[in-house]
Amino acid sequence: MEVLVIVLNKIDSLEDLMVEFKNNDIRGATIIDSMGMIRVLADERPEEDLPLFGSLKMMLNENRPFNKTIFTVLDSEKIPIAMDCVKKTVGDLNKNGVGIMFTIPVNITEGILK
After folding, report:
1. Beta strand pairing call for 99-105 and 67-74
2. For FRET with 68, which of 10, 29, 45, 93 sits at 20 to 30 Å CA-CA?
C-alpha cells in the first residue's frame, strides 16, 4: 500500500478530480487546506525588504491564497490509475503553478476497508 499525496494549486479542478476518483473506484481521500512557502513569505515580509517576494505577491491570486492537499491510501496497483485521474483532470503537473504529487510507502494500516 501507498499514500498518494497531491498538492493541488488548481483548486477549481478539485470537484472534477473527486468525481474522477469515484468513477475509478478510488475512495477515502482526505482533503485539507494548505499554503505554499512562497505565499507565506510574500505575506510576512515587507515588500521593500524583499522586492522579489513583493512581485510574487502581486502575481498570486488574492482570492485563492490556499491550495488543497489530498491524501489517499491505496493498494500499489491503484496508484497509476489515481495518478492518471489527476493528470486527466488537472493537466500537466510539470507546468508552473499546477501542483505536485508523490507517493509514500505504507507498512501498516487499520480501518481501511477493501
Report:
1. unpaired
2. 45
Cβ–Cβ under 8 Å, residues 90 and 13:
yes
All three cell numbers of 111:
480501518
Short-list 112, 80, 40, CA closest to 101: 80
Q: Kindly report the pTM of this predicted structure.
A: 0.77
Q: Is residue 113 predicted with pLDDT exceeding 90? A: no
Q: Round to whole Å and give the CA distance between 35 and 6.
A: 13
Helix (H, G, I), strand (E, B) or coil at 107: coil
d(CA 16, CA 41): 30
Beta-carbon contacts of residue 106 (< 8 Å; ≥ 6 apart): 1, 2, 3, 73
